Automatic annotation (TrEMBL), chains C, D:
Pfam families: Met_asp_mut_E. It catalyses: (2S,3S)-3-methyl-L-aspartate = L-glutamate. Keywords: Cobalamin, Cobalt, Isomerase. This is Glutamate mutase epsilon subunit.
Amino acid sequence: MVEILGYDTHMGQTVILGVIGSDAHVVGITILEQALSAAGFDVKNLGVQTSKDEFVSAAQKHDTGAVLVSSLYGHARQDCQGLHKQLADTECDAVTYIGGNLSVGQDDWDDTREHFRELGFNRVFDAETDPSAVVSALERDLDHRTAEPETQRVRMNS
Amino acid sequence: MVEILGYDTHMGQTVILGVIGSDAHVVGITILEQALSAAGFDVKNLGVQTSKDEFVSAAQKHDTGAVLVSSLYGHARQDCQGLHKQLADTECDAVTYIGGNLSVGQDDWDDTREHFRELGFNRVFDAETDPSAVVSALERDLDHRTAEPETQRVRMNS
Amino acid sequence: MLRDERIPDEELIEVESALRERWPTGADAEFESAIAYHESLPTTKRFADALESADQPLLQPRAGVPCLDDQTELLRYLDKEGGADLLPTTIDSYTRDNEYEKAQRGLEEARESGEDTLNGFPAVNHGVEACRELVEAVDAPIEVRHGTPDARLLAIITLAGGFQSFEGGPISYNIPYTKEHDLKETIEHWQFIDRLCGAYTKRGVRINREPFGPLTGTLVPPSIAIAVMVVEGLLAATQGVRSLTLGYGQVGNVVQDVAALRALRELGEEYLPNDVVVTTVFHEWMGGFPPDEARANGVIGLGGATAALAQPDKVITKSPQEFQGVPTQEANAAGLRTTRQLIDMMAEQEIIIDGIDKEQELIERTARSLLDAVFDHGDGDVARGVVAAFNSGALDVPFAPSDSAKADVLPARDDDGRVRILQWGDLAVDQEIRDIHDARLDERARTEGRSRSFRMVADDVDAISDGKLIGRPTASESDSEESGRATDGTDTIGGEGDAD
Amino acid sequence: MLRDERIPDEELIEVESALRERWPTGADAEFESAIAYHESLPTTKRFADALESADQPLLQPRAGVPCLDDQTELLRYLDKEGGADLLPTTIDSYTRDNEYEKAQRGLEEARESGEDTLNGFPAVNHGVEACRELVEAVDAPIEVRHGTPDARLLAIITLAGGFQSFEGGPISYNIPYTKEHDLKETIEHWQFIDRLCGAYTKRGVRINREPFGPLTGTLVPPSIAIAVMVVEGLLAATQGVRSLTLGYGQVGNVVQDVAALRALRELGEEYLPNDVVVTTVFHEWMGGFPPDEARANGVIGLGGATAALAQPDKVITKSPQEFQGVPTQEANAAGLRTTRQLIDMMAEQEIIIDGIDKEQELIERTARSLLDAVFDHGDGDVARGVVAAFNSGALDVPFAPSDSAKADVLPARDDDGRVRILQWGDLAVDQEIRDIHDARLDERARTEGRSRSFRMVADDVDAISDGKLIGRPTASESDSEESGRATDGTDTIGGEGDAD
Ligand code: B12
Ligand code: B12
């Protein structure tokens, strides 16, 4: 992919990454950080147990292309309440992704996705997400900002 | 039980046992034969792959208290068609039981039971049946013929 | 007269023509065009090659439904969602009895009602073209799995239909599967089938043959299963079969299962001619399953783990719905995936278990003794020896429903859960070996504070479905051992659906 | 100043009173009446006794829902339908953060909506009486399972509420569970909890304590887990704990898992005072699960098989829905029954595996070296030693999110699937041991034709959920190793739910 696009890094495209709320599941973002860095993104990993405020101020501090919120422990709904309002207030226009185990229990994925779409996330990823799918989605959303990300289906399991 | 009832065998109470149709599952009736014999019944084990005719003529030959039909392989519905008519024709008034895996696939037990009740079986047993439950049922049905066997629930899993 | 000799060409042709007239679909099963058809198949559908070249145990489920489109869908599902490496087509019970009329009625009923009124795929009724459609519709090679004593017409049609593997054998599809079939006649019928496979083989279409190792599936002592496998292998080899998969059904004791699979491979290779490629197949537990899918998954798990340790060439998987009835495709695929996960997680681990050699030695010694008896009984002719040995009880199978076997042998587990022989009948096994078994069973009897008896056998038959390996007496049972009750009623599960 | 010394009575009482004021329910948690309450409980609810006297591994699931009636029903279900020997009550995440207000809101929401808006049972909010109702409503003993760095109020209330076992520890509930909690402070908090348990113990109510062995659950080298367990055990013993269950999370390599459990028991008994009864608990695989219940059952099956071989005193079971989220009660019970079936089928078999001693020796040697480092760092004081050792990196946990740990250590599997250390950081392990690990990992690197790197770690993290034990590169990956892509996209599963 790197070769195909003809450049080596996604300069100035800072990607903010963190686990929201009091969630401490760190393995997923560790793997994501490594994959995104290897793909040339400038990743700021805020680590686990990151508050909304911390996400917002980190997004403000950099030329942020994307904010990646991870949540595994089942409290994502509560934890993300108001995040997009705060981001909008600081005039951050980064794309926002959320991924992980986004609800408590054995919930229906369509409902869950819809819920987080309504909260304002541009893309919602389930826990089966392979890091390469995240890289691909970011490459599309950050390199071709003018294209409509909403109309692209970046399912990798073809 | 033997002691409680005060006699040792169920004399003259022949129990006919066999696997119907072209079914060759022999293990269940082997266990049943042993349990019924140990409980004092006079068991005639016709073995596997026993035709309706063979059941009927065996029932005729003895003072038959009960005819026990086993079927495991999923063709019991077809194989039992007309059995009760034939028994009635020979004026055999033995109680009839059927047990085993009585339908093909993962069927609903209530439907299955109902079906075999309608065919004329006095009792219908599933594959989880413990031999002791069969002994108990036979003791009731054969020793107390005047009682209404239909109103007794002989569930052993209390 | 029955002899272990190759059927002459003319006789093969003659019998084949006669058989093809037994049912209208026989007409299409023309040998030369069948060869051409097999040659036209892609190499991925060569069953023998796929099996023999695999470097991990290949997984295969059982599956058969009456209609062609349903069978196609089912096999595709098991391939895609179950990840099966090899596919089956299980034949219905009427076909197994050569009752093609009944099968026809069942098939028509199934087509009309949409219900599975047969417990398998009536391949004879479907005929050659339908078989070929099936073979073409799925990616993996397919085997015919059945349980038919006289499977000659089934073989003629399915082999012409593009199947390249055929399960069964004269002992293994007679003794456990039927009451009245004469063993001598069954051997002749299977000599024909093997000869037909040999004819294909000679023309470059190597048909894989798989004797049915689990026999009655119920506590079969490994030595007996292995002796039967070798005998069936020898009979098949005589007729020109060159790809043989010898089978064995899990007994649940890990050491004994691994030892048995090694013994099977070893004796198979030793006894069979060099030009026969011998592979092995391990059947996950073939006896009574727990009436609970979660516990059934535990049984399947132990099967997968054992397969990972023993590394057979193929594993026949069970589904968590085994107890209940023919499984849904989902449950069937689940059994495949559970097994796969265990094998794949354990495959790369080196796990060396003690005592396997010793058990293997005992198994091999016993199996050899049974094989010697067969050779002796037949004055060197295996075919006649088999009949005579079963007749005398020198060779025997526990729980055999067949009149051709004495079924005097009764197995029971020892204190470690290995299957031993409790009642020998006339089995051709010397006193030294008997003493070993007796001693082991005495050890168990002591542990349980009861004497060796049929009750142990009955308890062992139920043990795995009750959640254990060894059928230990419950407290109340051993108290009241002399009371004459078969089992105590205290923890009875299941039961009767009485009207009310 | 932090010291591994018993907290004086007065201080215990003082701190306890202060803590009880933090939330209204604290008022009811009165020690003397709690003792009386425990004494009134039937012996069957004595957790420590039940565990220590068992002759087979006892099974315990994880389970916690917000409302009392639901929790009661859930535990009864797991007891009756799952056959759990010991029951859990898993606490919600807000309580773990001492955010009792948020937990209260969640609880109220749950009560109103009927939905499980919390991921566990907020025991502090429920209070002493509700806990007692729960304890009385179920037959088996119950343990508090959580993940709370400062669990003092939770302990006060739940112990007064009749629970007799309390999971966690200063390292094991800090390092894997939180980012900012100071380790020194956490140790002080757990000294208080252990001291409280000690006070109960002294009065005849032997509270069982269970440090959380799996740590981050992700490829934790056994030696690290064991060192942490021993340290937490020592700290607890100082405070008067006399029933200690040391934990270990399955890594999936059978030899290593059995060796690790033996080493854990051995070192636990060696290092802990004689008056402490040491038991062990084995956690079924705690890392990422397959997103498929059938394959998850395979993972659980291997867990059950390993438990049968290693014979820990207790097994914490997983459910086939582990991947997806908090399991339904049915799935939770299914995990118990699958595990039970495997253990019961294997329990009576003697399966002796080679090479366990050697692996155990390596584990023990490494764990001793880490323990020595802790003692050295604290000049003989374990409490101070722990803080200093984590600070220097002499003791470290892979994937630790906590600022108190360096998390410089990175594990990877060797060619046999055993967890080795790829990146050592400042771990207090001598060169000889490092060389052994290096050699094993080099062997793997050679097998895979790639160099040792973080990619191995990432591949290993996903391996079990992808259906394997070792994260081998796929064909295309090793081809394009230098291309800079983290993984190739060819066999990606799952993904994104994009709007359209
Ligand atoms: C390991 C683990 C733990 C470890 C975590 C150690 C650590 N600090 O990281 C321990 C044991 C400490 C733990 C604790 C808890 N856990 Co936990 N844990 C797991 C487990 C088994 C694996 C998670 C993991 O590491 N996976 C491997 C990584 C590589 O995958 P991942 O995290 O899913 O990340 C990938 C994708 O999700 C995606 N992704 C993730 N985030 C994002 C974000 C974006 C923007 C994108 C695009 C993609 C993306 O890409 C990642 C890389 O491929 C899961 C179950 C499972 N999945 O099998 C439960 C699980 C997540 N845990 C759970 C729970 C409830 C807890 C606890 C609250 C309760 C408890 N039982 O103790 C505590 C929470 C503690 C806390 N404060 O957070 C639940 C969540 C329930 C729910 N959502 O309904 C799960 C699902 C288990 C279950 N079935 O109950 N856990
Ligand atoms: C062992 C076995 C075999 C052995 C049988 C050896 C033999 N000759 O006995 C072999 C491998 C040969 C075999 C063959 C077949 N089998 Co089979 N077999 C089983 C298995 C695994 C165990 C049966 C058993 O022995 N149980 C132990 C005994 C003690 O229990 P039981 O037989 O259920 O009997 C007890 C109760 O049912 C009850 N009972 C039984 N009969 C009666 C009668 C009365 C009156 C009463 C009161 C009680 C009662 O009491 C008994 C004692 O407790 C079952 C699945 C299972 N249950 O786990 C499948 C099963 C019965 N077989 C099945 C099938 C389809 C076949 C085959 C048609 C196909 C095939 N795959 O080859 C052939 C049939 C061959 C033939 N002609 O009959 C299906 C039946 C499907 C259905 N009903 O929907 C099952 C359920 C497997 C499955 N899930 O697909 N099988």
